[in-house]
Design brief:
The structure is a homodimer of 326-residue chains. With 326 residues, chain A is an all-alpha fold. Chain A has a single domain, classed as Farnesyl Diphosphate Synthase (Orthogonal Bundle), CATH 1.10.600.10. In chain A, 74% of the residues lie in helices and 1% in strands. Chain A contains 16 helices and two strands. A two-stranded antiparallel sheet of chain A has the order 1-2. In chain A, a hairpin with a 2-residue loop joins strand 1 and strand 2. The radius of gyration of chain A is 20 Å and the shape is globular. The N and C termini of chain A lie close together (8 Å). The mean pLDDT of chain A is 92. Chains A and B meet through helix 2, helix 4, helix 6 and helix 7 of A and helix 2, helix 4, helix 6 and helix 7 of B.
Chain lengths: 326, 326
């Protein structure tokens, strides 16, 4: 990911605070137990985009300024995200993440389940080091919704009639709730006005939705080498995402019946077999338009903020969300 | 479990408060999502001994009196316990719990993982409804240790040389940390003196250890019909527990080699094949003595408390811990 301009700008604007958040995270997760310590060590190699702490700190900076609490909260949201990733990898039987073996592949599913729990409990432990229960309460609420979103996703697996509305409800829960929380907490703990807090929360929500749509497109069309993770898992697990929902809505009767046949019997070649249908449809165009509209909404939410480097970066992140290929 | 005298006494002493805690739990876990609601409905059928809320409320009553916060905390600890049970059932591939199909058996492993997460996040959400972060912080810390204990248990699976010390460290983390927390929070939120808080915490710890040892004996020698859960899973998963550790320490060389052979290749008949070795050893006597010593320690911790019905019941629970057959 080196050389991506927006990330270089992030580095300049909040690099020091991100590092401090990392340090808080590492201290919270320190363990004297050699087994736990090994897993922790391994999991630091899943170094990702750090999107959530970045959002939280940038929202703080754009809305009034970064305080010590923000760094703690940035570590908390990253830990929650990591917990959901570890459990997702169990659910998806994923073998690699960020070019590194997943915890379930390297150890086993049991270890992954418990390690995810460990990350969840530590995130709450860390959140409760703040002075009031306010953040704990909001984090608790958001994570409740994340879990409901993930449960709905499991329930809808194999449902080839999934509606767009149901799809958006799922990704709003499993992804956008947490990014919305980042915007909210960033602004709230910068002591911003209620209207700014609401705008930053909505920024986070729209951005999260746009990111998730892009992620779903990558799972369908991405390059495993570039993304560094196992792809095609949505198809293997019969999780319908926006391009496929659109494809099924718009294809001819003949095509629809063939596509349903392919989706109903997942195999290695499923991705390749779907490509011709996708290419002669407007599925990717349509999906891209929906993602762009969300990025536009994210931009709009930033309008009332003063012009600062942090605001500019948040704006660029919204563009990046719909252009990325990793 | 009807007709167990100690439970009738509990009912009389704190029945109303236990019911209120149940109500708080049910309200926290209410969901408008039909899938989540179904799972919640199903999971209420795992109605267990309610040991943890009971302990917390009895400790409160014995140490000064039950307040509203105690009922919330009782719901929180039960929810955490339920979360660990749901994840344990995934880890153990268990099919029944309290005579009812487990979540993984009725739905699937993915749903169990996420439903366990859902219970964890709700427990923290509920804990953060209290006025200060104090309970959140303590609950976060205790659950961190629970997860480390469970992870150590996974690591030691298949280790036929597990020491007593390592076994005690594991059960102290995975079980006794939470029962110790119940004693601690019960006394603390009853505004008891520090010495009383420490004594109630130690009571909870010793009791938790005694209960876990009894549970491990039941897994080896219990009756599935009576306990209402899948048994023998420790052997299937090659988890060494106290009777087996003792057996391996004291058996003749010839027997030891045969026992190790049996343990190393778990099958349906493993329990039955071990019985003759266990019967001609002091393994159960020894285990029973260790559990009784812990129950004795629990009794000792109660000495400084005034004589109340709540204290008497805590004392009886310590006896019950080592006599139960379910």
């Amino acid at each position: 990911m080196q050389g991506v301009p927006v990330l270089t700008a992030v580095e300049q604007a909040i690099g020091a605070e991100l590092l401090e958040a990392e340090k808080i995270l590492a201290e919270e997760l320190h363990s004297d137990n050699p087994y736990v310590s090994d897993i922790l060590q391994h999991s630091t190699r899943f170094r990702g985009k750090r999107l959530r702490p970045m959002l939280l700190l940038l929202a703080a900076k754009a809305a009034g300024g970064i305080r010590q609490d923000h760094k703690v909260l940035a570590a908390v949201v990253e830990m929650i995200h990591l917990a959901t990733l570890v459990h997702d990898d169990v659910l998806d039987d994923a073998e690699t993440r960020r070019h590194v073996a997943t915890v379930n592949a390297r150890w086993n599913n049991e270890t992954s389940v418990l390690f995810g729990d460990y990350l969840f409990t530590h995130s709450f432990h860390l959140a409760s080091s703040l002075e009031t229960t306010d953040a704990c309460r909001r984090i608790g609420h958001a994570t409740n919704i994340v879990c409901e979103g993930e449960l709905s996703q499991i329930k809808e697996r194999g449902n080839l009639d999934l509606s767009e509305e149901a799809y958006f409800k799922i990704i709003d829960g499993k992804t956008a709730e947490l990014t919305a929380l980042c915007g909210h907490l960033g602004a709230r703990y910068a002591l911003a006005e209620p209207a700014v807090i609401t705008a930053m929360e909505q920024y986070g929500r729209s951005l999260g939705l746009a990111f998730q749509i892009a992620d779903d497109v990558l799972d369908l069309m991405g390059n495993e080498r570039k993304t560094g993770k196992s792809l095609g898992s949505d198809l293997q697990k019969q999780k319908l995402t926006l391009p496929l929902i659109r494809l099924l809505q718009t294809a001819s009767d003949q095509d629809t019946s063939e596509i349903r046949q392919i989706l109903a019997h997942p195999e290695e070649s499923t991705r390749d077999r779907l490509i011709p249908y996708l290419e002669r449809s407007d599925a990717f165009d349509y999906t891209n338009k929906r993602a762009k509209a969300l990025a536009q909404d994210a931009h709009r939410q930033l309008e009332s903020l003063p012009n600062t480097p942090a605001k500019r970066i948040l704006s660029e992140i919204a563009d990046f969300a719909v252009q990325r290929s990793f």
